[in-house]
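Here we describe the complex-level prediction in full. Unlike the single-chain runs in Section 2.1, the two entities below were treated as one system.
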Amino acid sequence: MFIATESIPSSFRGFTLIMPAISVGNVGQLATDLIISTLGMPRVGYIYTDCLIPMAGNNPYPTCADDAAELSTNAEVYCLPGVKLAVLQIRAPFVQRKSKKFRKLIVSWIKSTGFDRTVVLSSSHAYQRDDQQLLGTPLRYLLSPVLEQEAGTQLNSLEWKAMERVSAFPGISDSEKRLYIPGGGITKGLYTDGCSEGIKMAVLLIFCSEGDNIPDAFALVNYLNDWLHLVDKPSQMSTQWRVPGSWKLLFGSGIPPAIF
Amino acid sequence: MQMATFFGEVLSVYSRAVEEDEEDDHENEEDQQIRSEIDEKRKVHVEWCSEVKNELATSAENALHCSDLVVAVGPNAAGFLSAYILSSVSWSPVGSMSIWNERNPGSGAMLQSESSCVFYRQKDSPSVLICQCTCYIAEDQLLQWAESVFACIEKRGLNVTVLSDCSLAEFKTTESMSSTTPFLRALKTSLYRSQISCPLLEQPNIVTGLAAAVLSYCQVHQIPAVLYQCYSDLITPDSVTMETYKPAFLNLSRLIKLDANPNVDVLQKLIRISDAQSNMYT
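The structure predicted for the assembly as a whole is:
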């Protein structure tokens, strides 16, 4: 599953892993791009799996002509050992009926590698919010029980809102409450697996709709930064995130002049 | 989202919106059996001729020693190889893969001539293996394809060249490319050191399909590989697009003899396939 680029791979024991869930608007993936690009994280390995559709391209985070030609695949791991941070980026959709297998592979990799905690960046359909959720911030979090003990107080002091449970049968108020993350892809499954396997896992998500999701990505990454302080935030100013070169022409080429 | 019937027809419907996991746990035993039969039918493997089978059986690593593997994906790439290289008598087919999926239902037993992917080799220079692939390979079969082929080839000393067709509509750029079409763009793995005969694929463009599967496999397994993707604004095979691949063979010229002019009979046959059989004017 994980194949290191170096012959002697670095250890991830005790590191924080940040990974996206493929979800509405691809917000988790966009936010992950911002983290890798801004921190200038070098690639340390690939996730080689038949669960993702193959794709290849040149380096999405070029800094100069020399590194622009580095080939990039559909799932790669980046690392900054100095701050004990590892980031997994996923660039392709799941092969049909393989999302569950991928979830299990990831959970198993997280456990065997010994990451201290895992943060999943995700999103959920804005149109599925109930009346309460329509008010206030669109950002939510979830913590697995093990991480709740460690980080729960800190997130409370940041006045973050936990993802609400919804009734299994809307409209019937005394029906059982369950977690529901529509448009979140494998988020709920990953979180549930994380809880049952005793993994320290946090989910950070934003309610959004399909469209230009770059502002949502910035909102999510700033939310994460308020907690983990990955990038310095000068007071009274917004954090400077570096937009990667691969974000050009997100909505296709320009208008061909020949049509006029 | 997936529209599926369990009678051999599976339609994938894509949208950017992502549904929560669809659990397969509610499938009954009969559905599971049908699904596993379909999965078995979809498996991809190479059928080698008896000569190559013997070579594999007698080699220490159960693998062929090749210096170069050339893979052509799409009708123009395959047509280029047919017209400029394979029309010479020294090349003969040595293996094939028949690929079954929703777009290639085919018949049960496929003859080599109907096969979707064919491997060729020269008798007097067996270190170069060429593969033409003109059929649709489903997303779940792409990596399987790469793994079944590379399982039969010794990775040490191997170089891979991939030729792949692509529509100009997929090329994202701020400039107008209509005057320069068809044109080549390249991608290479970290270990590929030879000269590239065209510009590298600019951001934000990416490659998908079999070309991406082969290139990803080579990158992860540290095999020097280069992909030449040809962007064309025509949807049918044509001789101009085929000729565009010529520069891709500069590095292989000492191993593979490229005919200066294409074999006209082969070209005509390839291009005529896409002619309308009849219309109200003829």
